[in-house]
């Protein structure tokens, strides 16, 4: 799976605040989405979920 560089960089910048790795953060975001949605998980959905989560975290 390929993730845009800007998205990865955003997650990497948040690791100090989160206290764990960016890959773990991405997995948590995807797990949360899967638990709340009945939509199939494809590349476009993954990108949308990650962007929404980054936007949400940026405004907290």
TrEMBL record:
The protein's name: CopG family transcriptional regulator
Organism taxonomic ancestry: Bacteria, Pseudomonadati, Thermodesulfobacteriota, Desulfobacteria, Desulfobacterales
Domain of life: Bacteria
A Pfam family per the record: BrnA_antitoxin
């Amino acid at each position: 799976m390929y993730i845009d560089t800007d998205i990865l960089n955003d997650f990497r910048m948040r690791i100090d605040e989160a206290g764990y790795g960016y890959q773990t953060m991405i997995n948590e975001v995807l797990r949360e989405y899967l638990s709340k949605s009945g939509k199939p998980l494809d590349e476009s959905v993954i990108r949308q979920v990650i962007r929404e989560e980054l936007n949400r975290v940026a405004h907290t």
